[in-house]
Amino acid sequence: MHELRPVTHKNQPSGRSSLLVDGVHRMSFHSRLGSRRPPSRQGIEPVPAHRSQGASMFRKPITATLLRAGLLLAGLATLSSLAAADANAPKAHSLLDLVILAGPIEYLLICLSVISYGLALNWTFTLKREILVPDRLVDEVYNTFDAENPPTDEDIEALRNSASADNSMLGNTIAAILDNKELGFESMRDSMDVASAAERNRYIGKVSWLSMFASSATLGGLLGTVSGIIGSFLKMSANPGGVDPNMLAANIGEALVCTATGLGIAIGNLYFFFWLRGRVNQCALDTAVIANEVLDYFRPR
């Protein structure tokens, strides 16, 4: 039988020398691996909690501001690219495209729409009888000037203080009457007339803005219509051989969209104007009735 012997290469070290070689290879491998490890965190001091929270509090507004600025820039870039697109290209225009292509007149009408309807909704909830002629003050007036229990000077002074503190149409009128109590009946009546007219004009002046918005929107829509028609005629004159209808779509769309926007603003604002004006007139009438009843108590007999 043949004896099996391990095959050894000439260049392969044997015995103790092979162990030394293996050790050198392992050390070099671990040294390379160790150089790639992340640095130890023992030497890094932890960030205090209050500093990290404060930094996050400052980062949130900055992030929100940058996000809003980015969205605004993206929107402006989109609008600019759409407005700068070739309107002569034969393509279908959506309603949004027509609004964008309508130009600055349509943008002004949209801003006017937001402002006017915002004010109309605000005055709908603030110009109410409960605010202009509060029931609490009405009850106090009737309780003070009760026919069965004539008021004392202290009661009249308390009513005057309550009316002065209540900045309403009725409160300012009653306060103007009682402020001139020492000057006589004629002076009190003149003060009532002036205060009633001033309070009515104060609230009618607010509501009259809606009428002005309606007129401005109508004229703005007409201006957009004229601008669109002029643009269409300019394109027709620049192409005497014939004009593709798609080339006129942008200008015709500008005319129609501006007209529709102006009419939409005008109709809604006129409705709110007449409705709120009627509400203010009714409150002024109720105030005049109550003020005359107060004045009758001081009428000479």
Entry summary:
The protein is mainly alpha-helical. The chain has a domain at about 115-295.
Distinctive features:
301 residues; 75% helix; 0% strand; mainly alpha; rod-shaped; disordered N terminus; 10 helices
Explain what this protein looks like in three dimensions.
With 301 residues, the protein is mostly helical. It has a domain at 116-297. Helix content is 75%, strand content 0%. The chain is built from 10 helices and no strands. Helix 4 (104-126) packs parallel to helix 10, helix 8 (169-179) runs antiparallel to helix 9 and helix 9 packs antiparallel against helix 10 (249-297). The longest helix is centred in the C-terminal third of the chain and has 54 residues, at 185-238. It is rod-shaped. It starts with 15 loop residues before the first helix and ends with a helix. 21% of the residues are buried. Mean pLDDT is 75; it is low at 1-62.
Query: How can the largest sheet be summarized?
Result: none
Distance between the termini: 156 Å
What is the number of strand segments? 0
Beta-strand share of residues: under 5%
Give the averaged pLDDT, no decimals. 75
Rg: 42 Å
Tally of contiguous helical segments: 10
Q: Which class best fits the helix and strand makeup? A: mainly alpha
* Series of secondary-structure elements, N-terminal to C-terminal: HHHHHHHHHH
Residue runs with pLDDT of under 50 for 5 or more positions: 1-62
Helix content: over 70%
Shape: rod-shaped
